[in-house]
Every structure is written in C-alpha cells, then in structure tokens.
Design goal:
By secondary structure, the protein is an alpha+beta fold. 17% of the residues lie in helices and 22% in strands. The protein has a single domain, classed as Alpha-Beta Plaits (2-Layer Sandwich). The strands form two sheets. The protein has a two-stranded antiparallel ribbon with strand order 1-4. The protein is elongated.
Length: 81
C-alpha cells in the first residue's frame, strides 16, 4: 500500500476542520493548544500517527485555503515483502 506524508502551513490555516473530517485514517486533529497568527487553532497530525498517512490527499482537496501539501510515495520492494 502506498504511504504518504502531510504538511500544513499552520499560520495560514483558518481552523475549519474540513481536513480532519476528510481523513480516512483519522490522523488529523485541530491543535487546541496552539493559536496561529490568524487567531485560529490550526490542523495538525496527531502525535504518533505520522506513519498512518496513505497519501490519498483528501485533506488537501478539502482545504479551501490550500494550506496542505501531501507527498505520496510507493513502498520499497523490501517493505512489500
């Protein structure tokens, strides 16, 4: 199965939560402990869930402000066996 990684431009996130709702792996959440420069709680990857990303990019597609970048990569042959 493909894997991926997700990165947020946290200072531009308006905290709408659409990415959290769209993630099929339930690895995203709103960071209630942080307020960004726009005054919102930004989205983030839940600690320990970094490897759960499958690279589907549904979070990025749902983001109205285009603050999410997803990188998708195929597992190496060693990882498949």
């Amino acid at each position: 199965m493909a894997k991926g990684s997700v990165a947020f431009e946290r200072d531009l996130c308006k905290g709408c939560g659409l990415c959290v709702s769209a993630c099929p792996e339930h690895m995203l959440a709103m960071d209630e402990g942080v307020i960004n420069r726009k005054g919102y709680h930004p989205a983030h990857v839940i600690a320990g869930m970094e490897d759960a990303c499958i690279g589907c990019a549904l979070c990025a597609v749902m983001c109205p402000d285009l603050v999410i970048a997803v990188e998708k990569f195929e597992p190496t042959k060693e990882a498949r066996s």
